Structure formats: structure tokens, C-alpha cells
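Question thread 4412

I'm putting together a teaching handout and wanted feedback from people who do this every day. The idea is simple: show students a protein as raw sequence, then show them the C-alpha cells that encode its fold, then repeat with a second protein so they can compare. Below is the first pair exactly as I plan to print it.
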Amino acid sequence: MDGKELLHGALPARLAFYGACATPDAVASGLQDFLQDSLCSPDRSGWQQEREGAPEPEEKTKTQAPCRNPEHSPAGDRSPGDPQSDNLENSRMKRAAAKHLIERYYHQLTEGCGNDTCTNEFCASCPTFLRMDNNAAAIKALELYKVNAKLCDPHPSKKGTTSSYLENNSKSAHNNSCSERKMNKKEVHGPRDDFKDVTFLSEEKVYEILELCSKKEDYSPLIRVIGRVFSSAEALVQSFRKAKQHTKEELKSLQEKDEDKDEDEKEKAASSAAAAMEEDSGASSSRLSDNTQGDNNIHKLGPEEVSLDIEAVRRVYHRLLSNEKIESAFLNALVYLSPNVECDLTYHNVYSRDPNYLNLFIIVMENGNLHSPEYLEMALPLFCKAMSKLPLAAQAKLIRLWSKYSAEQIRRMMETFQQLITFKVISNEFNSRNLVNDDDAIVAATKCLKMVYYANVVGGEIETDHNEDEDEEPIPESSELTLQELLGEERRNKKGPRVDPLETELGVKTIDCRKPLIPFEEFVNEPLNDVLEMDKDYTFFKVETENKFSFMTCPFILNAVTKNLGLYYDNRIRMYSERRITVLYSLVQGQQLNPYLRLKVRRDHIIDDALVRLEMIAMENPADLKKQLYVEFEGEQGVDEGGVSKEFFQLVVEEIFNPDIGMFTYDESTKFFWFNPSSYENEGQFTLIGIVLGLAIYNNCILDVHFPMVVYRKLMGKKGTFRDLTDSHPVLYQSLKELLEYEGSVEDDMMITFQISHTDLFGNPLMHDLKENGDSIPITNENRKEFVSLYTDYILNKSVEKQFKAFRRGFHMVTNESPLKYLFRPEEIELLICGSRNLDFQALKETTEYDGGYTRESNIIRDFWDIVYSFTDEQKRLFLQFTTGTDRAPVGGLGKLKMIIAKNGPDTDRLPTSHTCFNVLLLPEYSSKEKLKERLLKAITYAKGFGML
């Protein structure tokens, strides 16, 4: 019969028997029986054959009866290498995959996905969905399967629930497999050619089958066994289990048992097996029942332990993957396994009932060929989608297990998922309408890569016990009413900083990792960054919808440029929000409109004017700090579109870090500034410096500050440790390192105590005891580690505690609601604040645009770049300062500046001018190269202040 007759003729007839009550269970039973007949029968419909990729038989054998299960055919009818046997095996695997898909379609039509805002017209949760009876739903499920219609992901409220239809099917599946399990628990004596009684694998069994196949030079039996086991979640979970390891006490107890004791144990084992089977019949996920390989000890496994013999799996893969035919069996099996696993995890809550379900993911990920092109098209995307459905607890356990792997093994898994993401990105054309966020394969691979990333973090060098104390006083909220309050609603609780739930489950953050197994940079996928529409992705990040994925939730895969763009959107939206609230507040209260953070300063008194104004704002209404900054220099005509703010920050930084002020000390050898523990400035001054730093990030300005990396780590909540001395105090670090490595007697040879000396602001020596009565406690080989730890803690933390807490508090006044900590690592925070130190003028030239009549081929433009290339490093920095308002390259390098060179009239004696707000250089068409160089050097050397052209 053709597809139309199948859907509208045979199925209603089959369901008529069950139609009297038309319950879901009855319909399910009819649907399953029909599915088995239609997929197994030799005269199955053409559309099913087309879906399976099998050719239509030219003639039918009249004596051949439909078979419900190919495995139940007489063994004598088939030989190990018989093509008919292979076809029947493939039919069984395809039937299992089709059954699960049709189950999901039926469940979607009758119960829905649980998302009230679902837009799938074939989902019961969609508001526009027209309800249908169970018979119609069964027919529709087959139609949807035929056309490969969209399947909804279940809403969280539906996860873990199972419809009566699915429960009925799982009970049936359990009953059908009971006899196989009983056979499986008996030792198989002597090899059989078909190996039909092998329903799970061990290393020994694989080698036994392999040896037999090698002797006969026919690998068909092994291929069929692999196809059967590796396409079944139940079989794969039971495979390659560790042998139970008995303790000495257990062995002694076993030796003392007599025959009566043995009989009692047998009775108990039989009772336990019966109870387990009774429990299995109540839920679909219980198919994965206890067996002879140690399942009864699942509850004894630790958080990083599994019942799987991973080394045995690796040895088996190593032996088998060299054979191309056997490799294709793994590939095909994975295609059929993945949809079933996805269904189990999505609807059946299988992991919570059997933690051993995690074994199959470990087994599949040990396949060293997952990254090969054959897997990238279908098998690996399907597996990633299934793996991404793992519950949080399962992900955490998998991460802890993988964290014990070597760096090479972590890199192999990382490259597998990265290759899939890259392959999918370059194989499709993504744009603002066709978003990469909507590609299921890329999203699933990114979620899987996230697990590898955290395994890389947990497996690295971790410091979880060196955290800064939180600020004692919370940052005050705005005194202004929120938009909701102005409209008569109660104030809503503001969300705190975003925290990754996986980090919470693991108890580890990225910043805790001093050195990962492989560098963080290897997890960045540049092709993905190139096609990512960051404005759309940021929207999904903020809205947190269930059906839209944001790559900002996986910041490890994004480069600094992309993350900076996301932070820019966040800052701008917060600025606009503050502006709208201010406007509405002024209308309600009748006060003066002030939508910007305005700073009017005198150039000669910039510190006094700016810091006094910022101090008043911080005391009266800290929320004003989150408005857009607008700077005016008194007596100057410049309008701040970004360029005036850049110069303001530059001048403030020059003044603040002047060693004569005494707030910071400067190390000539490292070129770094450090907090002066003897500073006479009050805490408020350091708070204001923190505000300036936060405002620079918030307003996307680059500062010429020189802090060691430990400052940015401390801003992110970590204390300074001995390793941080390498760049902040390298001389001290080397001395303490030599102390730790000294092989002689420290007490006799060095004669030092737990008292240290340092100098104050004026160079006077000061003494400090690291411990009580430290001057009388000698340092020995036994306590030298304690001395180094106390010395480091004093230099980096305790001696500057008062100054740094005030500094950090000011910084958080501006950035406390920002996703800064969530997105960036400390070295990336430094890049945000200071910009890139690498000045690549070739990249700047390639991205520069021309206007007003100039082109890339104009003679003056060629002369201009020749002159710029001939500049010294100092002159190049002056040129950048003159053109862009800062002498640093932005995040991503000079190529991200997008400078414009515009024609500013014919030959003249006027100097070049610039619009630093927009990175525009106005260049007259000078008559000679020499005049161009002379005018340009004079402009960049003496440029200061703003005027109107």
C-alpha cells in the first residue's frame, strides 16, 4: 500500500479495535502494534522505505509472513554473513529509532511541551492548536514523522513527567527484554556464530568475537553485535563494567560462609531480583536494571567514580577502530542511539533513577574518530543534542570525571566539539534573519563544549580558599523611584550578578583556576564569533527565554572583542534606562531634568573639580554614576560625543598616578604602580579612583594605567598569593623562592625572624611582626613556608587592605550590576581598561576609510602612511592620542578603530585637525611629502584642548 493508504486506511482500521474506550493507553497499544507491523512487514510502505534509505523489493515471497521482531526469526534461516541477516538487523535498529520519534510526536500532539508561549502549530501547548482525539493524534503523529516535522524541546515544567503512552511502551519494552536479560546473566560457554545471546559487551567478549571473526575472515558477527549493543542505551549502559573489588574484610567474610549461608544469600539475591523487576515495570527508565557486573553498589560510588572500566573501553576502541567496516558500525549505531537517549533524558528522568546511565556518554566520547568528517554530518550532532539534555547533577559528575583526564584527552574532546561547531558555521550562511543561535547542532555542541571547559578548569591548578572578604556596607540604591514605582507598582528585587548554575554545582569558578589543563584561548571559536549577531544574542541573554540560546552564557567560546561588544550593549541599555527614569521622575516631581552625569571641570584643577563632584554624587545618589558621562572643560567649546571624555580620563589618570601625590608607588623595574600603604590620603580618595576606573569601562574609554595582574584578580574577588609576586614584586618573589629552595640550614645560615622591615612615604624604615613576638621567632626549614605565606599576605593584602577596599568599593559602585565578572577573566579586564599594548599600524591602514575626495590610491595618502610608518614608537603614540583621544589600541587591536581620513581643503599652512569622538583626521592636501610630515608632527606634538572649527 502507498503512504496515503497507510495513513488513512490501515491505521484507522487497526485503531477501531481500541476505539471503544479511546484511552491513551489503548491508542498507544494500537499505534505500537501498527508501527511494528508496518516497519517489519516485507510489504511496508514506500515512504518508510524511502525514509530508511532501503530499495523497494522487486518481488515479494508469498510464503513469507510479517515478523514482529527480526531477532525472533529462526536462527537456522540465516548465516553470519547473510545479507538478509544484516538487513533484518538494520530494520530492527531503524524501527526502534522510528518508534521513539513517533512516540514524541504523539506526546507533543496530546500533552504538549509545557511552554505556554510555544509557536509550533503541531504542539498541544501552542495557543492556536486545535485539539484532536487520540485516534486523530496517532494518525497525525505518523504524518509528522513522515515529513520530519519540528519537535519541541520540553519546557522545564514538563521534564521528568511521562505520559501514559510512554509508560505503556516502556513496560512493553521491559517485558520484551526480560528473557534476554536472564540469558545475559548466564555464562556463555563456547562461541556461537550469531552471538544473539550477547546483549552487552565486556572487553573479554569483544576479543572472543574478534578472534573468531579473524579466523573465519568474516567480521559480520562482530559488526552486528556492535550495532546491536551500541545502538541500545540499555545494552551500552551494562557494558564494560568494572569487576567488583572486594575489601579484605569482605574476602574474609566470604571465606567463613558455610553452605547454609550460601543458600540464604541465594534466596536474598532472588528476592532482590524480583523486587527490582517489579520496580522496573512501574517506570520506563528502570529498564536499566541490576546485573551481574556490580550494579547493586551504585549508591556506593563517589562523586567522581563510575562503574565503567574506562581503560577497557579505550583498549577496545584501539583494537577495533583500525577496521573500516567495524568503524562504520559504530557510526550507524550512534545515529540510532542518540534520539532514544534524548527521549530518555527529556521525558523519562532516567539519570535520577539509574546514575549508571552516564556510562554510555563516557563510552561514546572515548571514540577517537568522533571528529572525523563521517560523524560531523549527522551522528555527532544527534549525540550532542542528546548529551546537552543531561541534568545538572549528571553534567557535574561527568565534569569531575573528565577533570582527571590528561591534557591530551581534554584537548581531543575539545577539538571534537570545536570541529563540529566550525563545520556547521562554515557550511551555512548565517545573518540577522538566519541566526546561528537557532542552529540546534551548534547550540548543542556549545553546551557539550561547556562541560569540557569546566573539566579543564577543575582539572587545573585551583585556588578556592583565597577569596577577598565582601564589602561590609552594601552599595546604596538610588534614592529615585524606579519606573515601576512611578507607575504605582512595588519595587522589584534587583537581580544580583549572574552566576552560572554549573559553577554553583561544582563549587568552582573560572577565576579559581590558576593554570588550566589547556589554555583558555583554545576554547575560543573565531568562525562562530564572526557570524554571531551580538545584538540579538545579548537580547536572548537578558530575557533568558527557554527557547532561545545565548552564547553569552558560554563566554569561554567568545573572544574579547565579542564580549566587549556585549558589555557595550549592556552599558548602553542601562544608560538609556537611567535616562528614561530620570525624565519620568522629573515630570512627576517637577524637578530639573538631568539625564546625564555631567562633569564641568577646569583643566588646571581637574582633580579637585572632578573628585569633589564625583564624591557628592556617590554620597547623594550613586545611581547617577550609571548615567552617560558628559564632560565639559571650562572655557572650551568642545562638545562631548566621546572624545572630550577620553581626554578627561587621560588627564585624571596622569594626575592621580603622579608619584608626588603619594597615593601609589612606582617600581622602575616593572613599570607598575602599587598602592602606597603609608599614604596620607583618606579612603574617600581611593574610592573616587575606583569610580574613575569603573566609569572608564562603563563609558568604553581606555586608560593609561599600569597595575600588576594581581590588582585585577583582587577586583574579581581573589586575594593575592605567592605566585602574584612574580609581576608585582619580582625581586621579593625571587628572594622568597630562593629561601624555599635553600638546601642548607635556614636558621643557622640566614639568621632571620618573622619580623620584616619596609619604608614609609619618606623612606623611613618601619618594622612589622608577621606573628606575635615575631622578632624572637627564628625562621627554620620547617616553618619557612609559613613565613613566605605570611609575608606575601602582608605585602599584597593586609598592608593595603584599607586602601584597596575603598578602591574596590568605588569600582563596584559603577559595575555592580554589570555582567563584567561573568564574562571576563582578570587578564581580559586589564585589556578592557588599558587596551592593547601591541600597535599594529598595518591593521589600522587596512581598515581606514577615506572621504572628501581621498582614496587609498591618492598620492597624499601614500605619503601619509609612509610618514606614519617612519615614526618612532613615541611619535606613533602621540599620533594615536591626537587622532583617537588615547595612545592605546582598543580591544582587538588598531584594526577595530575604523579611522577616517577626510580631505580638508587644498594646500594650506593650517595644521591637521581631528574629531577624537569619531576617530576622524581632517587632512589638507599639502603640496609635498616634506610639508605633510612637518605639519603632522607639529599637530601631534602640541595638541591640547578642544575648539570649534
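The second pair follows. I'd like the answer to focus on this one:
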Amino acid sequence: MAVETKTKQEIRELVLPVTGMTCASCVHHVEKALRRVKGVATVNVNLATEKATVAFDPAVATLPSMRTAVEHAGYDLMIERASLPAAAEAAQELLDEQARGRALTRTAIQATAALVVGLFALALMFLPKWFYIPWWRWSAEDAWPLVFFVATPVQAWAGWRFYRAAWAAGRHGQVNMNTLIALGTLVAWAYSVLVTFKGDFVHSGGLMSEVYYDSGLIIIAFMLVGRYLEDRAKGQTAGAIKKLLGLQPKTATVIRDGAEVETPIAQLQPSDLIRVRPGEKIAVDGVVVEGESAVDESMLTGESVPVEKRAGDEVIGATLNTSGSLVYRATRVGEDTALAQIVHLVQQAQGSKAPIQRLADTIAGHFVPAVMVVAVLTFLAWFLFGPEPRFNLALITMVSVLIIACPCAMGLATPTAIMVGTGKGAEMGLLVRSGEALETARRLTTIVLDKTGTLTRGKPAVTEVVPMDGIDEETLLRLAATVEQGSEHPLGRAVVEEALRRGFSLNGGSEGFRATAGGGVQASVGGQHVLVGRAGFLDEQGTAIHGLREVGERMALNGQTPLYVAIDGRPAGLLGLADALKAEAREAVAELKSLGLDVWMLTGDTRETAQAIARQVGIENVLAEVRPEDKANKMRELQAAGGVVAMVGDGVNDAPALAQADLGVAIGTGADVALEASDITLVGGDPRGVAAAIALSRRTVDTIKSNLFWAFAYNVILIPVAAGGLYLLTGDLLNPGLAAAAMALSSVSVVTNSLRLRAFRRQDAASFRRPAPADRVRDWSYLAGIAVVATVVAVGGYSWSRNAADSLPTISVEAESLRYAPAAVHLAAQPGDLVRVSFTNHDEVFHDWSVVGIPDAHVSARAGQMAMATFRVLQTGSFELWCTVPGHWEAGMVGTLVIDRGES
């Protein structure tokens, strides 16, 4: 989906799919290519979503020019997705999902074919060694041509995606993960072909006649299995977007000329009258004009209790009408609906990068070339200084290094966690704008709650009317309400609503209306000059309120906001207003404290009123009598004291404060979810969502850290192991097939670790505490557990095979000056037994020792080297021992081997 945003500088922002990316190096190449396009301001490429977020000047940079740049890097930018409306995008997402399903099936088939043929090749070449088959007379060399003709087409077909991608990158002078896989498997295949069809040439060069057809196929099979599991997991990480797109109904019942017409949602227009019956979803945003019902908004707000709706109330598209029938007038359609904005915000967040990812990006940009250098150095070190067979050991270690190196895990560590974390947040009505917001939320030390709309319902009501002597309640309230008709302040609207509720007429109107921010209002009503406002406002106007001040202080102590009224310069009375606390306010404050945060309340109320409300919710720190324009200054003061500050407000008059704070949280926004000043938006009005958003951010960032640690540790530990570190400890090398399995496991582990965030739930206040060491251990136990299990399995398998080999009967042969000791060997063995040959060459030339008539009973060694081989006894009897010294002595008999069932 292409999500578009424009700013005042006419910078256009698009989110576009990118095809062909497989690892973090690919991300680096695509970003580098797009940044080189003139007019491109910023680029963020996300490996998990396979999308690029590009901000550019459309007067300079064009979509075709960006696509060309990406194509030159070996990838493709899907610019045709740049202008799809929401409905078309939902359909396209369905097609994409079907295409991904087909691709997964194809990957599974290719992986199965590669694994089956790889095991078949392994069986043909080594089955006689592993199992006793009396009638089998083939040696491993006899099977090589057949294995070549079976394995080659399967390797080309199953590994084509890697070879094609490596070629595309190579044509543009770039390397990536596919380059490593292609080099590793093709080098193994090419050497195997040379040994199969030019064996004499290989042998005359003193090289071991070994083939690796099975290794290439098994490597590709494990790579494909890893890709299959990774793609499936990545599809699950994108589940939030798919779920959101699936919320919107396909059609709506539109009332036109008195008739109800079923209309596709893409054809709806603002001001259309739409009927929604019980059990149906509301199609688009609008305002109820007829009927009453309860609407379930949990799919967008995360709040499970249905909300009562009646004429004049706002409804949000994609929510569920549960009881009565409603008729509403559409106000937002298409890309303007709350659902479209939520999808936009989630995609924007999932396409963003957290600052913690910068190190991973820097390393990933140079990772593949560095691995190729390490692989070449490994080959040279083993070839020049290693034991025999030097070339074969050098080849195995080089292939293992190429295969085991994993830039994918580094590339997926951050974006998959952000995808799952922000997607989970969207399901709970918590919209996080970026990865940076997640990190900031985790570092918070101080949180400031704007009283109105956050802790209170944001709908104050008149609770008390106190007239002075000589004036009645009706006159006092009517005059105050007439003046307040010109005000947009919630307190002013509450005064007007109370007067209308009592049936007072306000038709007379006022003249000369003036409002003082944070103070009050004044106007002339019927020739009388009326002031309505706070005590300080009336003092500034020169009006004494001595007779009312004690009453006002009493109201303030009870949590009411006193509004003083003066007529023609004389105090006339007092209105007490109260904004009811939200039922969840006290619990929300407790949860924030349990997170270890310093909680403050900010309000324009008097200090007495503010303190009374703060006591009710459990807040000790209060910023009272703060004018709207001063809220941002209060944020600066708290930041200057060393705090990392979050501001929580409803976005009505606190946008500057939200922007000034390190983290701005807008709460209870309803359909208006795209507040530019906020970093986190809570669609619902439940203040407990603030603590949930912070807790989710902490979990997400902790997951990112564990992913990155795993990715770096994996490469730091296993690349040296693949290069020969294991040989120093055990005398054995890491099998390239096992290297491929380890590489696949590393990527899959990172993705599945991120998927664990899907289990996050709103919790009780007590469970929101700062993680104790034991909790951190549990958080890290998943990846650590995978590492431990994999290590135990590997060590156990190796120990079993090593013990099995050590228990075999052994023939020890030494060669010196064309003489062999012993020349006659007597061996007690049964048909079917495995026998190990230890051959030490003390001569100055290469020797090849073999037993005539027994398949695979041969071993070669260079001067001064010792080599091992195993063969299976097929029958008892006497056999000739032969030796070849290339360039010195052709094959000749040098002794005998007697095998019988008795004691040797």
C-alpha cells in the first residue's frame, strides 16, 4: 500500500513495496540508491515489511527516476501502487496475500525436493559405509556420475532464486546474502564436477577425490526451509494491517430519494445518509441524525464496553452497531476515515527505524564484503598451513564461512519487533508513530497528565449556582450563559448547556464579546456589562469579589471550578462547575507510578481545585493555574531538571506542550487520530492506555535488544567456528550443511522472538513494575533456550558420532621410502563391520594406499601428513594392498590384508 503524506514544504511522502530484498545488505543498497536520486529528502527501507518510506520533492524527483535507481541496484520499486485508494488497496492486499501463499507453497516444494535429492545423493555415496548391504558392490566413485545428473538440475531449480539475485546484485557491483549462498554452493558443485569427470587430473595434483553434491543441495534445502519459516512468521507480523483492512465492510445502505440502495463503500460521498442495522458495521465516519443504539468500538479503541449513540453523536467507520437502528450522515470517506488514518499511522510506524538500529545498519552495509574477505583468508590459511587433505579442508571451511554468516538476523532484529509491537498496539487502540517513539517511551522518567480530558471526562457541568443578594439564580445563569455563547471553552459550553437544560431563553444575544485566554469572557447583554471568569480575571478588570471568595475557596476544596460573575462592575454571583473524574483515573495513575514514573498533573484550575482532584487520583505533584500558552514552558522546566518527559493531553489546546515534550501522547481522540503533535495516540479515552502504551514500548525495545544481541553473538561466535575454530578443539570441521541449518535457525529465531509480542495484554497495575532481574532473564530465555538446545543437540550428535568412530577396528599403516609397515595386515572382522584406516606418510612424496576388491578402502596423504578413512567389510578373505606415488611410481602391490572371523 502506498501511504501519502504532504507537508507545508510540499515534500511528498510515499510508502512503496520493494521486491527482491533478502537481507540487511539489500536494505543498505536500496537506501543508498534512492538517496542518490536528486530531490529525495529521506529514505527508510524496512526488510520485514519489504517497503520503502520515501520523502521527496515531487518537483525534482519523480517516481520513474526512483524506480530506475532501485532497478540499477538490482531490485524493483512498485511505483504503480502509489495512488491506490483504501478500498482498492484492501483488494490488492488480498491478492498479495494469495500470491504470498503460492510463493510459500513453491518454496516448500523446492525445499523438499532439494532435501530429498540431497539425502539421495548422500545415500548413494555413503550408504555402503553406513549400512551393510551384502549385494552392494558400488564404490562411492561409481555413484558420482549418477549423482551429478540427478543433483545438478535440482540444485539449479531449487537454488535459482539465490543465483538470480546474486547475479542481479553482481551486475551492479554489489554483494548480499544471496552472493554468499551462491558462491558457497557453486564452489562446492564446481569442485565436485571436476572430481567426477576429471578425477585423474585432481588426483595427479595431490588433491582428495571427494565430491560435495549433497552439501550444495542440503545447504539450499536448509536455506529454503529457513526462508519458508521466516516468510510465514513475517506474514504473521503483518497481521495487524491485514486485520485493520479487513474491518471495513464492502458496502453500505445509502438512503437516496427515500429509497435504500446498497452501495459499494468506494462510491460513498460526504453528506450521504446511511442506515446501519443491528449487527452491521458502520461503513464510514459520520454523525448520527436518527435513532439510538450501542456501538462496539473495541476493534479500534480497545475498550470493550459498547458506547451509547444518539442524534448528534459521532460514529466511527468499521465499528459494530450492536442493538438499535441508526441513520447517520457521512462526514469522512475514503482516505479521510479514522480507519484509513489508523492504517496510515501503523504503516508509518512499521516503516520507521528505531535509533538503536543504526549500528546494525552500519555493520550490515559492510557485512557481506567482510565475510567474503574472511572466507578467502580462511581458504588461504587452511591451504597453506593446514593438514592433509589441505585443499579439501580449505574448501569446506570457506564454504562453511560463506553459508553460516547471517546478515538476515541483523536486518530483521529491529523491524520485526517494531511491526509486531506497533501492530499489537493498534489492536489495543494504541497508535505509535515511529520506532523512535518506542525508544523514548522506554526512557521516560516523568509523565505530565493534563487534567481535562485525561483524568476527567472533558465534559464539565454546572453543579452549583450561588447568586448574590438582589439577583436570582435564573438571571445569574441566563446572563452568564448569554455571554458564554461566544466561547469555545469547555467551561463556557457547560454554562450554556445548563441554561438550555433549565429552559432559559438565550435569544437576546450579546455585544462586544471578548475572551481572555485562561481568564474569562466579557460582553454586553441588554445594556449590562457582564464578566464571567476566574477570580484573577475579575481582579484584573477591577471588580472586587470579597463577598464570594470564601464560597469559591470552598468549591475549590471540593474539586469544583468556581466561575465568578460580575454585572456592571459589581459581583453578582458564583457558578460552581465540576468535570467528573473518569472511573479508571486512579488506577491509571497507580499503573504509571508502578512503572517507576514521576507523575504530575497539569491544569488551569486554581491550586485548591487542582489539589483536591489530585488527591482523589493519588497525584502529589501538581502544576496549577497554567495558561494554555504556558504549558510548553512547563515541559521545558521539567526537561531542564533532567527528566525525560511525556505529556498526555486531548490535543485540544495542548498541541504545543505535546510537541515540546520528549513524548507527546494524545488521548481520547476518537475519529481524529492523526494529531501531528503526538508521538502516541490513544483512540479511546481510557487513561490506563497510557501505562499500557509505555509497557508495550518497553517490551518491544527489550525484544529489539535481545534480537540484536542474538544476531551479533551468532555471527561473532559461529563464523570463527566455521572457519576452523572447532578443529582446534575436536580435530573436526563444521559440516557446511549444519552451517546452513544454523544460519536458517538464526533468522527464524529472531522473527519468532518478535512474534512473542503478540501475547502482550493489558495488565493489572502491579504487573507494570520495572522489570526485575528475574523478569529480564525470562524475557531473554527464549533465544537463550534456542541456543542451549541447539548446542546440546550438536554436542550430543558429535559425541555420539565420535564415540562410534573411536570404537571401530583400526588399521595403522605407515609409509617411508616406498616401504609400508606393516606389509601384511591381519584383521578380525565380520562382514558388515566398519573399519578405520590410519595412514601416516613419512615419505617426501604423495602416497595413495588402497585395498583391491573392497569399495572405498583407500586413503591418501601428503608428505609428513596423516590421513583417516573408513570402509565396510563385505566378505572375509585375503586382499592385495596397493600403492600409487603419482609422478614416481605407478600402482603396485605392496602387501596383503587378511580378514577372518578369528582373533587378529
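Top answer:
Good format. For the second protein you could add a caption like this: The chain is about 45% helix and 20% strand. Residues 5-83 form a domain with the Alpha-Beta Plaits fold (CATH 3.30.70.100).
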